[in-house]
Amino acid sequence: MLDKGKISGLQMAMLLYPAIMATFFLTLPSSTAYYARNDMWMAGILSAFFGVLVIYIATKLHELFPGETIIQQSEHIIGVLPGKVIGILFFFYSIHVAGLITRMYAEFVTGQFFFKTPLLLIIALMVLLASIAVRGGIEVMARCAVIFTPIFIFPLLLLLLLFPDLELHNIFPVLSRGILPVLQATALPQAWVSELFFISFFLPSLNSPAKGRKWGNITLAAVLLSIIYVNLITLFLLGPDAANKTYPILVTFRYISVNGIFENLESLLLAMWIFGNFIKICVFLYVAVVSFTQILRLSDYRPVVFPMGILAIVLSFWGIPDASVLGEYIRYVGPFEIPAVMLLIPLMLLLIALMRRSGTAKK
Amino acid sequence: MNLVLFSFVTLAGLLILRLEWTKMKAKKTRDKSAFFTLLLIVWLLSILDLSNAPGPLTFFEAIFRPFRGWLEK
Known about the structure:
The structure holds 2 protein chains of 2 kinds.
Chain A: H1 9-21, H2 24-36, H3 42-46, H4 48-64, H5 70-78, H6 80-112, H7 119-135, H8 138-158, H9 180-194, H10 199-202, H11 212-238, H12 248-255, H13 266-296, H14 305-317, H15 323-332, H16 334-362
Helix pairs in contact in A: 1-8, 1-11, 1-13, 2-9, 2-11, 4-9, 4-11, 4-16, 5-6, 5-16, 6-7, 6-13, 6-14, 7-13, 7-14, 8-13, 9-16, 13-14
Chain B: H1 3-24, H2 29-47, H3 56-63
Helix pairs in contact in B: 1-2
């Protein structure tokens, strides 16, 4: 591994939790409510299957090839040249998603809060910050995550202040339109949960790799609970109308008012969203940089961090004229694109590795 | 061409070159060429009218178009 830094399992979980939830949970209730209406809370439960599978694949591959990321593993499994192709795909995909995330983040911030600030400024400042953290190494990122992830999670608890306004009967009738809309609603959560495969890039840096699966599953459980919790609160407050809002969570936060003292808590949401996105962009940038360095077998990853950051900025503008294009892309392409890279390719690699292993054992 | 983005990328690229050059000199040719190629690609991309140019999004959209029907109501 290029980075000699070591992180603990808890630190890895704290890195991965915002890496999945940050961009996701603001728009999550609208996309699940769009399909499943009042059954939207079930969407999180069904995506557990994908999460468990992805973590199993990543940790099993790491057991077979300890101390290696998926980039090096694929070269050992299917040969150098095809392995490089898969590595390039991973690199291309992670930097492409890093661009998408920064754009989503900037669209939210400029669209809801900083109306007159140029998009480029918000993107550039965030990417600069993330690049500095990534350049500092995985330990710096992990320590940032330990500080920021609790700040990222805490505002979610404030939603409990809405308790007197919740209408629990919104949940009925359960499954009145059959299971198909729920399956459609699962498309997006399962895709995001598949991003847990990035655990593959952190396992080599763990101080006790054997605990990787345990902490991966803990992260998955935390993510699923948050998805169900956020969906339920939105459903109880807004009902199936959540589908009509771009950022339903923002609406629920605006709704919070305790005795006329605690109000306008959406500014807190903005702060938390920035912390979460910082970690998320760090993780994706780190994965892109590590894949790039390992594909080309460079001696150090630090010099390419800043150029990679600029590439992420350029990609956040490439082919995205406005937010609606981005929204449509995430709704219709994301649910297939993410699992194809994060689930299908690693699954095939694992099957090939296991078959080759049993083949040599027989001889 | 997005002039703001282009000038931003040019300035940032020059700044990165200036800051990294002292450390890059000691590195292997492979590291140097990867570093410069990456900067060059980014700079060339920033010359295009990026927002309206077909890019990675168009690519992935074309690949996954057949599945889109599953999610349309």
